[in-house]
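Predicting holo structure, spermidine bound.
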Amino acid sequence: MKKLKYILLLAVLFVLGACQRSQEERNGILKVYNWADYIDEDVLAEFPEWYKEQTGEDIEVIYQVFDINEVMLTKIERGHEDFDVVCPSEYIIERMMRKDMLLPINRDFGNTPDYIPNLAPYIQDELNKMSQGDKKVTDYAVAYMWGTAGTLYNTELVTEEEALECANMWDPKFANKLLMKDSYRDCYGLAIIYANRERLEKGEVTVEQLMNDNSHEAIATAEEYLKALKPNIAGWEADFGKEMMTKGKAWMNFTWSGDAVWAIEEAAEVGVELDYVVPLEGSNVWFDGWVIPKYARNVKAASYFINYMCRPDIALRNMDAIGYVSAVATPEILEEKIDTTLENYSDLSYFFGPEADSVQVDPVQYPDKKVIERCAVIRDFTNKEDLQKVLEMWSRVKGDNLNAGIVLLIFAVFGGLFVWLVISKVKKYQRKIRRKYRRRRR
Ligand code: SPD
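Done. Tokens:
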């Protein structure tokens, strides 16, 4: 008996030792899960050196990318993958908060400055509207990039007036010339806004109410309008929109402002002029932010990484590399972004503060206050069944699901083949038996 106890104790000590060793090894690793093409590679590569300077500790970054919020969420929610820091959009941050899937950011940075207060109060306020009870979003999420959803268009083939009215996306003259972002919430919002444009104009309903309405009636309306749009759709793109627009294969692309900035620059290099506008009827203003999922195993390094991303010089390098706009709103960023060759002046006081009420800054990157006023933030659909109905509708619209007719056809073809095979086998067997009898009679 004593011997058994001794063996058990040794086994427990061995397991504990192994766990400690593996946690120690894990402390030297930071697993980051971010959108594709969403960071300056040098900024990422320099993080270990900065981390070592700040903490004296070594860190190795394991970096993975995704293209769709829901893909990322499934890996964490169902797969319990141990990413330390991930970058969902606002409505997914809201869902992760609601489902208690996040850990608070540890802002105990020792002698390292806390750069998180560099974020625009406008964005902090918008994020905090999604707080759950006494849990403030900004304790769990740090905004990274933000922008609008709108129409990127080829100025030779589409006029600004046409691009400005989302009604034109449904015009048959754009058959097979429209690319749509493969993002169900953006497309849902667009369809529902367009369907209710008259009520919107009369002030009977707001963009925010429409985009976040997942009643059965709203889902049916969105389905009807998205299906009606299909003859015009050349593709649902996650990242190939920029290329198709640059090559002139598509004329309009309902996309995110940062992708538009990138495409406009690329296209200009080959002599194609693209521009981007936010529909007059309204659209969404979105925010992606860093969060630490509850299965994370290196909260310290994750928090330092998030802090590093809020350094103004790092924010600028990321912006320059990817075309998107950082949530950091310090004077040096504004100074860097002012371009006196631009004709238009924008009111960016909502983002940079009162002195920025008339500044020459790229309006695709930083939307004017008036544009922001016709946009709203996407909120999470909280009811699981209703969310499922929206996703099923999205699948039907995109044609991801096989429809009943095709399933029946497949069954009919394989069923027919099977019956034919059985009949020919039976006939072959009958012939064999008959031959056998004939031989015996002889
Ligand atoms: N290639 C990176 C794209 C990331 C953009 N996120 C936008 C989310 C809008 N809901």
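Residues 406-434 form one domain.
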